[in-house]
Amino acid sequence: MDANQLSHKIIGLAIEVHRHLGPGLLESAYSECLAYEISNSGLYVEREKLLPISYKGIFIHHGYRLDLLVENKLVLELKTTDELTDVHHSQLITYLKLGNYPLGLLINFNTRILKDGLKRVINSGFVNSHPTDG
Which of 29, 63, 116, 133 could form a disulfide with 25 if both were Cys (CB 3.0 to 4.6 A apart)? Predict the structure, then answer.
């Protein structure tokens, strides 16, 4: 399944979680439930995956934490905020670039209708090999 197909499947699962829980909970509740749905659908998901960074010759092992990483190609950044901002978008772009992931979804569960809180972000600099591929 490519990243585009995967994103469509994950959006459906996120809508399912939102239908059952509605808006107004903590991000951790949505993260736990969405990870359950993803795993239950047969996909591999990692929660709070560490994303190391290199800075001026030093290696920082715990530079960032991805909320969810699906099939080692789709980054999910979850929010529970009044509205998504440019900073949230920039954060996801940074994660995509640092991890060399092709695609990400910014999902704000604090909306009446989840589609109003969804943003799909493409890594325009994606190289079709992953840094951990050997």
Answer: 29
Domain ranges for the chain: 3-122
> How many angstroms separate the Cα of 67 from the Cα of each of 36, 55, 119, 131?
13, 22, 15, 19
Helix (H, G, I), strand (E, B) or coil at 25: coil
- CA pair distance 7, 79, nearest whole angstrom: 17
- Tell whether the model's pLDDT for residue 129 goes beyond 80: no
What type of residue is 117?
Answer: G
Classify residue 115 by its DSSP letter.
G
* Partners of 62 in the β-ladder: none
Fold type of domain 3-122: Trna Endonuclease; Chain: A, domain 1 (3.40.1350)
Please give the mean pLDDT across all residues of the chain. Answer: 92
- Residue 82 CB contacts under 8 Å (≥ 6 apart), including other chains: 110
Interhelix angle 27-40/3-21, nearest 10 degrees:
120
Report, as an integer, the average pLDDT of 63-69: 91
In terms of pLDDT, which residue wins out, 131 or 64? 64
